[in-house]
Amino acid sequence: MKKKVLLSSAALLASVTLAACGNNSNNTSKADSTTKAESKEKTTLKLAALESGYGSEMWPAIIKAYEEANPNVKVELTQDKEIEDKITPQMKAGDYPDIVMLALGRKQALPETLIKDKALADLTDLFDMKVYGEDKKVSEKLLNNVLGSTVTDPYGDGKHYLAPMFYAPTGLFYNEGLFKSKGWEVPKDVAGMKELAEKAKKENISLFTYPTTGYLDSFFPALLANAGGVDLFNKAMKYETGVFTSPEATKAFEAMGTLLSNVEPSTVANANKQSFTKNQQLILDNKALFMPNGTWVVGEMAKAPRADGFKWAMTAAPAIEKGGKRYVYSFFEHIWVPKESKNQAAAKEFLSFLYSDKAAEIFAKYNAAQPIQGVTAKLPEELKALYKVVDEVDGVINGNFVATKPVEGVSMKDTLYGQIDSVASGQKTIAEWQKSVEEVSQKLKAAVQ
Q1: Where is the secretion signal located (predicted)?
Q2: Fewer CB near the terminus (10 Å): N or C of the chain?
Q3: What DSSP string describes 139-176?
Q4: What are the residue ranges in the chain where pLDDT is below 50?
């Protein structure tokens, strides 16, 4: 099933002790100056990080590289698979880490709680800093659109409180071997998808399948961005009035309808937690051409049988019109700083290093990709085929629907994605689906916290 990687926090507590000032005599020798410099105590940063799928050796390697580059800093690392259990008691006692690497969506919801309490430090100026050891600003190295989402800017005030660290792009997965053997090109727009659907139908191959409707939570947002730009996507995440029935959004719903009208017949019956891998198997068996998913599917289906010459590949959601823009929705892991941390300047300097080419090469060895320009070339070969899609599109989008107070009987997830089975089976029209989404959006808009 969907494996959105969720990291824990990295906690950095820094204490800087300045060396005592010496006698400012004109007769001070060079030897005296050297002695004073060496007596200056190091800044100690305490880093707490989740021991995640990247393994336990990645952060020690990063720390070693940073300490070599910046000998004035010592980084102490705490790693644990349940890092919240380690740092939460300390934070309650007033002992706050300086940096925390912990993704949203984990059961204990530590970052979500701190966001609600407005207890995160403003990291906006981090992105104007130069990367440690390089001549580029952090913002100049980032992929387009990774800042400014409802995640990095949880309060909608234009300030960034969570820094994007690692990412996993999503899109349409397909068998590159099949396309090569047939001489077919991968369509870049909806019209091309329609044409390919007719070709494939003649060979008893369906255009589209999906594991469960929940997997459309990254695909449909990309269609929204393709139809109306990042601005339309962000408006949808904030429940702006009329956004889902706007002309641009209508094009996204219609594009989704094109794919659903060419869905593999067994898809709906197997689109559940028990049988979803049967739908994923359709791609490996060349019974369907495209499937929305994330990079985790490669490992998930590693032992499954497959057609001769099978090779995983991924493309972005189709442009609405020929030559139109295309975006990729990516899941992100974020790094953040508690508002009560004591060494925020030193923490931000360390964070800037994490976006360096040197750090990127280390992270890539552990299959961790940062959202920076050129990172694809550093990744292992098996990942390049999946991440290269990011280099071929107009930008990366990320974000969730903004938080609301509970509204009885109302769920955007159930309405926007849960009804897709009904649309695919012909029980509900695209227009009916679209209308219901706008109605729910307005109910939730009234309950925004």
Answers
A1: 1-19
A2: C
A3: HHHBPTTSSSSTTTSTTSSS---SEEEEEEEEEEEEEH
A4: 2-39
Is residue 370 within 8 Å of residue 354, measured between CB atoms?
Answer: yes
At 300 the pLDDT is: 93
Task: Look up the CATH architecture of domain 41-166+330-383.
Answer: 3-Layer(aba) Sandwich (3.40)
pLDDT of residue 38: 44
CA distance 320 to 219: 14
pTM: 0.83
Number of other residues whose CB lies within 10 A of the CB of residue 374: 11
Which residues of the chain does CATH 3.40.190.10 include?
41-166+330-383, 170-327+399-444
| pLDDT at 13 (0 to 100) | 24
- Torsional class of 268: left (φ above 0), alpha (ψ -120 to 50), beta (otherwise): alpha
Summarised one tens digit per residue, pLDDT across range 225-243 is: 999 999 999 999 999 999 9
Contacts of 184 (CB under 8 A, 6+ apart): 178, 196, 199
CATH superfamily ID and name for 170-327+399-444 = Periplasmic binding protein-like II (3.40.190.10)
At 382 the pLDDT is 82
Which residue type is seen at 269?
Answer: A
Element (H, E) at 349: helix 344-353
CB-based contact 197:191 (threshold 8 Å)? no
- The candidate with the shortest Cα–Cα distance to 222, out of 148, 324, 328, is 328
Give the pair of three-digit tokens for residue 22: 């010496």
Report d(CA 363, CA 369) in Å as an integer. 7
CA gap 169, 394 in Å, rounded: 13
CB atoms within 10 A of CB 48: 27
Alpha-carbon distance of 50 to 55, in angstroms, equals: 9
The encoded tokens of residue 348 equal 């931000």
* Burial 21-39, CB ≥16 within 10 A → b, else e: eeeeeeeeeeeeeeeeeee
Q: Are 433 and 245 within 8 A, CB to CB?
A: no
